[in-house]
Amino acid sequence: MSEPVIVEVGLGERAYDILIGPGLLARAGTELSRRLPGTRAAVVTDQNVAAAHLETLKAGLEKGGIQPAIITLPAGEKTKSFAHLEEVVDGVLAAKLERGDVVIALGGGVIGDLTGFAAGIVRRGMNFVQIPTSLLAQVDSSVGGKTGINSPRGKNLVGVFHQPKLVLADTEVLDTLPIREFRAGYAELAKYGLIDRPDFFAWLEGNWTKVFVGGAERAEAIAEACRAKADVVARDEFETGDRALLNLGHTFGHALEGATQYDGARLVHGEGVAIGMALAHRFSARLNLASPDDAARVEAHLHAVGLPWRMSDIPGELPDAEALLGFITQDKKVSRGALTFILTRGIGQAFIAKDVPASEVLSFLKENHPGQPK
Amino acid sequence: MSEPVIVEVGLGERAYDILIGPGLLARAGTELSRRLPGTRAAVVTDQNVAAAHLETLKAGLEKGGIQPAIITLPAGEKTKSFAHLEEVVDGVLAAKLERGDVVIALGGGVIGDLTGFAAGIVRRGMNFVQIPTSLLAQVDSSVGGKTGINSPRGKNLVGVFHQPKLVLADTEVLDTLPIREFRAGYAELAKYGLIDRPDFFAWLEGNWTKVFVGGAERAEAIAEACRAKADVVARDEFETGDRALLNLGHTFGHALEGATQYDGARLVHGEGVAIGMALAHRFSARLNLASPDDAARVEAHLHAVGLPWRMSDIPGELPDAEALLGFITQDKKVSRGALTFILTRGIGQAFIAKDVPASEVLSFLKENHPGQPK
Ligand SMILES: NC(=O)c1ccc[n+]([C@@H]2O[C@H](COP(=O)([O-])OP(=O)(O)OC[C@H]3O[C@@H](n4cnc5c(N)ncnc54)[C@H](O)[C@@H]3O)[C@@H](O)[C@H]2O)c1
Ligand SMILES: NC(=O)c1ccc[n+]([C@@H]2O[C@H](COP(=O)([O-])OP(=O)(O)OC[C@H]3O[C@@H](n4cnc5c(N)ncnc54)[C@H](O)[C@@H]3O)[C@@H](O)[C@H]2O)c1
Ligand SMILES: [Zn+2]
Ligand SMILES: [Zn+2]
Asked: What pTM value is reported for the model?
């Protein structure tokens, strides 16, 4: 078996490794007991992931002498709620785990965010290990320590920063991921190229089919994404500055998710981000910050991999441009009335723009809205 | 008006001031807007405290240009629950406060613990200010950043470390506190003398009546307690070592609270701590670690101020010694089966004892149990 790629997240006392490669579920017990000898564990997962991968993980943990308590939740974004948080907290306490024991998230971003939050609050912080099983979770949500749940008043409004002790990104588990979810995760992967790694974006343009197929290119792409995210997180653990760059595509994306009532049948998060990234480049071109050629290049690549890239790619009707702006101004990244956007000067040259005039955003949304005259 | 005493909690980036003195509610707006200019705020309180002090605080905040949202909860330990946590979180979000705005706890330890937890998780951490109104909260719970709620599986099992930006301990608000609650808080105040400040304990033996009456001695005693707690917290913010000293009296105390089903009519927390401290000294004497004279001195002082100090002071029947031991071994301070106790070599000489044999504890409990032959 090939050795995993290791990416270190350099956070001083809270530093940890991300292991990336095939067969890591089967090695989980060995990796864990090496780092946290004698630990006991609980595994939190969802029904889809449990069906596909729980037995492999249990066998892997067994090799390290770990027989975990298992907490299985329904799949889907609705699971990121207070009710399920309480359920996980209670499950961990019922297993009589102590502060030095470990809570393991086996699943996509939903399970990772919820479980990390629970691990962050049981006994005021337990050891936490991420075993991300979606591409999105491997390249994004499992790295960096942001955890949380949704509130009826908005997504991800409640949570803590709680860094894992270890991330095991098993690249083989992605083979059971629905292709639409794989593509959605790919949007976040490509995002790192667009933020500040133009060579990575160019590499993806040439090699994306191999990433989809699996093998060494998939592991390498995931590792590069983790390196990119780890860099940003190490610079700004608590999102007081630079880390906001990771929101490229997310302001428009969140507005579209809100406008489609977070209905995954119409739009999943990564798809919203794909459209959002295309819009961010197009908007930057309209503001004469970037070349329209760059926007076209982004659009072409997203289209090639089968991702939606414009509002008209979303099935069903969208609310009008004014309503979309309303979703943007409610966004929590808005600071005291001024609109903050991640804009770009070209591929790999994203930056944080504060004070973007709402009127410009509105005109842009009107021009690009599928249901209104262009 | 006399100037408040200021105690600094030296936590580097997270350092903050505790202001102690009369009239601080009326000055809250000035103190807050000096430190967090332009902030908006929500005040979380309970019905008892709201009736006695909310109008004064609102007027005080108004002077700093702050018109807070108000969230009023029922009084009592049951309020430290997931349901009320969700209620506070929702209230803060409904007030559309941003990450830089402030959540204020006006109340005793219950309101402080719950509100601090909510402030720690809304938007992954908002500014937090403590305005403790019980003596226990002024000398203990409002300082140090431990926040949390109870679980059906045990007290304070869920929470975060979230330091306040400021603590305003208004010594006048204690005049409306029921005397029994004042006494309970006094037990925690005396605790600091017993841990490592023998001179403070001796001072309290001579001056406790003035602390009860109010005035400069009350403020000085509270300030000394805050200094003691701030010292420990600065050495060990996340309770990985020394901070456990603050649990003096709490292992026995929690067992007695559990054994009386947390029924405040029989035993409130500080009363449990009073009995627990007396027992910790008596147990240390029995183990030949300390002189029986010291145990007698502690018992005499607790008795003088009107606090319970032995198990027979608790109204109603207690479970037998074995059952009490069961409450102790379930305690979260138990690490992998070994019993950890805070014991003492004399007044002001407490220390952390790991591996205390359960058999010794059991014999001691049997000897001191009111319902069993001595
Ligand atoms: N914490 C962060 O920094 C961060 C960053 C980005 C996104 N997120 C969050 O992540 C969530 C989205 O994550 P997601 O896209 O992984 O969603 P998800 O967890 O809902 O997973 C998507 C779907 O794929 C299924 N699945 C996952 N792995 C599988 C596998 N190997 N085989 C078969 N099915 C599998 C899941 O059961 C689910 O139905 C959102 O809630 C978002 O807010 C968090
Ligand atoms: N976070 C920590 O480090 C820490 C430390 C010690 C205790 N605690 C917690 O603190 C809680 C106990 O605190 P508490 O004793 O303040 O309990 P509390 O908050 O329930 O207050 C006791 C009673 O006094 C009332 N009250 C408070 N201030 C008043 C005033 N000025 N006038 C009239 N009535 C007033 C309250 O309404 C309540 O009925 C427990 O939940 C305990 O776990 C936390
Ligand atoms: Zn995203
Ligand atoms: Zn206490």
From this structure: 0.94
pLDDT tens string A16-36: 999 999 999 999 999 999 999
φ, ψ (nearest 5 deg) of residue A287: -85, 10
- Strands B166-170 and B16-21, by their bridges, are parallel
Residue type (1 letter), B369: H
What are the percentages of helix, strand and coil residues in chain A, rounded to 5? Answer: 55, 15, 30
CATH 3.40.50.1970 maps onto chain B at 5-177
B317-356 pLDDT, tens per residue? 999 999 999 999 874 444 445 788 999 999 999 999 998 9
What are the residue ranges of CATH 1.20.1090.10 in chain A?
193-368
Atom of ligand 1 nearest to the CA of A268: 15
CA gap B352, B246 in Å, rounded: 10
Contact B64, B195 (CB under 8 A): no
User: Distances in Å between the alpha carbon of A242 and those of A229, A230, A238?
Assistant: 11, 12, 10
* Domain B193-368 bears CATH identifier 1.20.1090.10: yes
At residue A158, the 3 state secondary structure works out as strand
Q: A74 vs A51, A150, A358, CA distance in Å?
A: 12, 15, 39
Residues B317 and B369: beta-carbon distance below 8 Å: no
Residues 6+ apart with CB under 8 A from A191: A246, A248, A249, A273, A277
Which residues surround ligand 2 with Cβ inside 6 Å?
Answer: B 46, 48-49, 52, 75-77, 80, 107-111, 113, 133-134, 136-137, 140-141, 144, 146, 156, 173-174, 176-177, 181, 184, 269
Query: Top-level CATH class of A5-177?
Result: alpha beta
| First CA to last CA distance, chain B | 55
The half-sphere exposure of B316 on its side-chain side, counting CA atoms within 13 A, is 12
Question: Of A180, A40, A168, A189, nearest to A103 (Cα)?
Answer: A40
Which residues in B248-371 belong to E strands, given as ranges?
Answer: 339-344, 350-356
What ipTM does the predicted assembly reach?
Answer: 0.91
CA distances from A322 to A282, A319, A358, A365 (A): 19, 8, 10, 8
The closest of B114, B92, B111 to B101, measured between CA atoms, is: B92
What's the CA-to-centroid distance between A305 and ligand 3, angstroms? 18
Give one DSSP letter per residue of B249-260, joined into a string: THHHHHHHHHHT
Residue B1: band (very low, low, confident or very high) from pLDDT cuts 50, 70, 90: low
- The Cα A103–Cα A114 span in angstroms is 11
Nearest to A112 by CA among A179, A60, A45, A61: A45
> Nearest CA of chain A to the CA of B206: how many Å?
39
Contacts with A78 (C-beta within 8 Å, 6 or more apart), sequence order: none
Ligand 2 atom 11 nearest Cα: B109
Tokens of A326: 């309303």
Report how far residue B234's alpha carbon sits from residue B313's, in angstroms, rounded to the nearest whole number: 36
Which pair of tokens denotes residue B8? 């600094």
Sign of CA dihedral B203, B208, B214, B218: positive
- Pull the structure tokens for residue B177: 């506190």
Q: Is B95 exposed, middle or buried (0-12, 13-18, 19+ CB in 10 A)?
A: middle
Residues with Cβ within 8 Å of B65's Cβ and at least 6 positions away in sequence, in order, are B29, B33
